[in-house]
Design brief:
The complex is a heterodimer of chains A (587) and B (313). Chain A has 587 residues and is α/β, with parallel strands linked by helices. Chain A is built from 24 helices and 10 strands. In chain A, helix 2 runs antiparallel to helix 13 and helix 3 packs across helix 5. The chains are: A alpha/beta (587), B mainly alpha (313). Chain B: Pfam families: BPD_transp_1, BPD_transp_1_N.
């Protein structure tokens, strides 16, 4: 199969059609689009709709009131027909919008494609050129160049288009840099497709949507700036324009406010419609806009009655759901039960998407704001955690439960030194002085195997390695001497050699302090390595729970067996054979 | 650090030279009209030639530019063709009026949009609806119309504020504040519209990041997470918008000054352009480019201070 047919299939026909359909169903898009269409049609048929030219003046019509025969909206201070001037001003605005937008798009898209697709050096040049363009003081330049443009709307707007182009350039460049490294573009390149063809067929498809959206906003600002300039008097007095009409009307405000109101209203309608249309386009083409991130505990839940088991952590029949775009709830965790006894290490194993991380977050009370716990109970020492307020949960998190994340780098705040972040955590949970907290943190850093704690303490996250960062995060987690440590794939993002060290560290810390560990992992090698018991999850439900030894010896569920088979072929994490795994294989 | 600033300033100077060169080349196409304007009604073809020669406008354009540049780097920006006013004196005087409006508007916009953007991102609900509504209104209505609407309502109908005119700060601080109040409000409306949306967006991005969850897992108070951690990380992108916003306000101020008959930079540049007063046009260009360059430098330095990865050692 050639690349050509491949790409033909990949063309996103369906989403495009559905975006158009969404747009047609959107009242905001329909109303604003319709309004703009009507206004443009009025401008196009101006000579038919009005008996006067834009500059025809008659002494009889000076400041004539609305409804004067032949002057539906009256006349202005020089006896020109306001209705005719409005219609012809639409033409000026439309020309301004088209000229400025066309120039901005031509310049911005061309250089954006070139700067984004080709080498770093070429990008360096285009970057420099556009930062030069951005240094031009926009409107001032248009005023300063009046002797050159002689106030011609088209020339002025063409220059304004160049001044607008950096925003388009940046938009396109970023999108192209993103898509450039996609596999299908790579494939096209390797198969020897000419660059021009790749850019047109593959890259332009990606940038099309954002450009359409940007066009609406560009037109709005071009029309606004043209009106502003004409208001100042930049431009020929014979060219009718909302700006000059507003200026005339402003001076005549006490005589007849409507001379000012008509052009102001029409200009307002046009720019507002363009902005609203742009917003509607954005919603249709890019999906919904980002929603606020509420930092708070989930919905309050009535604690279910249940006898306290002696365990440290008891999760019973937990279900978590997320709202879908259509408003229904989709369950990602359905009825999970598990227990962790004090000082016990329990593994939660399963593929990605099995709901194991969601379960862990629920125990920590750190589910995303849109998640809904539909039923169940999470008890720590018999105390119900679901339904606790953020303040109470914070006490639990600071004292009893701690968390070691998966991706070490993204879990450190890039703007603070490692030490500052850890000290803040220690202070929040223990309420000790800054100096004591610093000492504690230094001791912890040394304990988690960092060679030079003083130096690391003063480092920013980007200055340390991934393995170091994970040690730092472990130090941050055990700082509060928790009873339960929840580790979410703590070794997945690390180099193989570092993985083993981190597991050793976790095991040692667990033995020293006697804390319990709930270890979320997809890796049965890790389970075999340090877990006493294992909970196997699949599609949001628990399929098997047993001691690690039993699971390895004889997995009860076929799914567990598949998982085991995919792991136990010599590619375990450790170089020396894991104890439990060996035991499992020997029998 | 010093080397970095020196390098940035050097690039800035190169930019300034390029921008002024381009402006000068463009202006040179209309020197005949300039000469005619200087001569006024007395202009005859016979007089234009010698006058052009006397003003040095007949020489090759590049020579003229280099001549101008040579004087300018020595601090001599020349005098106006029409009023014989010293360019530096005239331009800085006008710039003060415009800059005071812009800076006051910028400070108010920043305070309001940071507060609104953060609340809207971290709380949602009413704050979010207010923020979204405000930024929509600011985008929907052109600043010119807001300006005239406010004059109509506050100055003409309610007689609360003077409609037009300017009183220097040194003369009467109260009247000064009253004369710039409406222009500042107009700029603040669009400033808030632009920056609130930006700050809300980058705060939402930050609050969704992994480190926020990890900080929460350590029992750190929400207040500290939002204001100390997320806001600090969101400040970088917001800062870029701030310097762009300054430029935008600068452009908008030029038009708005005209509505309120303020003796600012814009109206001055406008008159100079209509007359073809080349020394003043060039002076105006130099000052605005230098302003942009130093603003970008300050933005980069603050960004470096905020973002350890961009920090210059």
């Amino acid at each position: 199969m050639s690349v050509e047919t491949l790409t033909a299939e990949q063309k996103p026909v369906a989403p495009r059609r559905s975006a158009a359909r969404r747009l047609l169903k959107d009242p905001q898009a329909l109303i604003t689009g319709g309004l703009l269409l009507v206004i443009v049609v009025l401008g196009v048929f101006a000579p038919l709709l009005s008996g006067h030219g834009a500059n025809d003046s008659s002494l009889d019509a000076v400041n004539a009131g609305a409804g004067t025969p032949g002057y539906p909206l009256g006349g202005d201070h020089s006896g020109r027909d306001i209705w005719a001037r409005l219609l012809y001003s639409i033409r000026t605005s439309a020309v301004s919008a088209v000229v400025a937008t066309t120039v901005a798009l031509l310049v911005g898209v061309t250089f954006g494609l070139v700067g984004g697709y080709f080498s770093r050096r070429i990008r360096g040049i285009t970057e420099w050129v556009f930062s030069l363009v951005m240094t031009f003081p926009g409107i001032l330049l248009l005023i300063v160049l009046m002797p050159v443009t002689k106030g011609d709307v088209r020339v002025t707007m063409a220059i304004f288009g160049v001044l607008l182009s950096p925003s388009i350039y940046r938009l396109v460049r970023n999108l192209v840099v993103g898509v450039r490294n996609e596999l299908y573009v790579d494939a096209a390149r390797v198969s020897g497709l000419p660059v021009r063809r790749i850019l047109r067929r593959h890259v332009l498809v990606v940038v099309r949507g954002p450009i359409i959206i940007a066009t609406a906003f560009l037109m709005g600002s071009a029309i606004g700036v043209q009106a502003g300039l004409a208001f100042l008097g930049v431009g020929s007095s014979t060219v009718p324009s909302f700006g000059s009409m507003i200026s005339d009307g402003f001076r005549n405000l006490y005589v007849d406010p409507w001379q000012f109101a008509w052009p102001a209203l029409l200009l307002g309608f046009i720019t507002a419609s363009l902005v609203l249309l742009g917003n509607a386009l954005r919603d249709a083409l890019e999906g919904s806009r980002p929603k606020p991130v509420k930092i708070a505990a989930g919905p309050r839940q009535e604690p279910e009655a249940g006898e306290s088991t002696g365990d440290l952590l008891t999760v019973r029949d937990l279900a978590i759901a997320y709202p879908t775009p259509s408003g229904e709830l989709r369950e990602v965790v359905s009825g999970v039960s598990l227990t962790v006894a004090a000082s016990e290490t329990v593994g939660v194993a399963g593929e990605s998407g099995s709901g194991k991380t969601q379960t862990a977050f629920a125990v920590l009370g750190l589910l995303p704001a849109e998640a809904v716990v539909t039923k169940g109970s999470i008890r720590l020492h018999g105390r119900e955690l679901l339904g606790l307020g953020e303040r109470e949960l914070r006490r639990v998190r600071g004292h009893s439960i701690a968390y070691v994340p998966q991706e070490p780098m993204s879990n450190l705040d890039p703007s603070f030194t490692v030490g500052a972040q850890l000290v803040e955590g220690v202070q929040a949970s223990c309420g000790i002085s800054r100096r004591e907290a610093k000492e504690r943190v230094l001791a912890l850093l040394a304990r988690v195997g960092i060679q030079d704690p003083e130096r690391t303490f003063g480092c920013y996250p980007h200055e340390i390695s991934g393995g170091m960062a994970q040690r730092v995060l472990i130090a941050g987690a055990v700082a509060s001497e928790p009873e339960l440590l929840i580790a979410d794939e703590p070794t997945t993002a690390l180099d193989v050699t570092v993985q083993a060290e981190i597991l050793d560290l976790l095991r040692d810390l667990q033995r020293e302090s006697g804390m319990a560990v709930l270890l979320v992992t997809h890796n049965f090698g890790v389970v075999a390595d340090i877990c006493d018991r294992v909970v196997v999850m699949r599609q949001g439900a628990v399929v098997e729970t047993d001691t690690t030894l039993n699971v390895f010896r004889g997995p009860a569920h076929p799914y567990t067996r598949t998982l085991l088979e995919s792991i136990l072929d010599g590619s375990t994490v450790r170089t020396d054979p894991p104890v439990a795994a060996t035991a499992g294989r020997e029998q | 650090m010093v080397a970095y600033i020196a390098r940035r300033l050097a690039t800035g100077l190169v930019l300034a030279v390029l921008v002024t060169l381009i402006t000068f080349l463009l202006l040179s196409t209309s020197f005949d009209r300039v000469v005619a304007a200087v001569l006024g009604p007395a202009a005859t073809p016979a007089l234009i030639g010698p006058t052009k020669e006397r003003m040095g406008l007949d020489r090759p354009v590049l020579v003229q530019y280099l001549d101008w540049l040579g004087h300018t780097v020595r601090g001599d920006f020349g005098t106006s063709y029409f009023t014989s006013e010293d360019v530096v004196h005239a331009v800085t005087g006008r710039l003060g009026v415009t800059l005071s409006i812009i800076l006051i508007a910028l400070v108010i916009s920043v305070v309001v949009s940071v507060a609104l953007g953060v609340l809207s991102a971290a709380r949602g609900g009413v704050a979010d609806r207010v923020a979204q509504g405000l930024s929509l209104v600011g985008h929907l209505v052109p600043g010119l119309l807001i300006a005239i609407g406010l004059v109509f309502a506050l100055a003409i109908n309610l007689q609360l504020l003077p409609a037009t005119g300017y009183t220097p700060l040194a003369e009467d601080p109260g009247r000064w504040a009253a004369t710039i109040a409406i222009p500042v409000i107009v700029l603040v409306v669009s400033g808030i519209a632009n920056m609130t949306a930006q700050i809300r967006g980058s705060m939402i991005d930050e609050l969704r990041k992994d480190y926020v969850r990890t900080l929460r897992s350590r029992g750190i108070p929400t207040r500290s997470i939002v204001y100390r951690h997320a806001l600090r990380n969101a400040a970088g992108p917001a800062l870029t918008v701030l310097s762009l916003e300054f430029l935008q306000m600068f452009g908008a101020a030029l038009i708005i000054e005209n509505v309120f008959a303020l003796p600012g930079f814009g109206s001055y540049a406008f008159n100079a352009s209509i007359q073809g007063d080349v020394p003043i046009i060039m002076g105006v260009t130099v000052f605005s480019v230098l302003m942009v360059v130093s603003l970008n430098l300050v933005a980069d330095l603050v960004n470096g201070w905020l973002n350890p990865k961009a920090r210059i050692h």
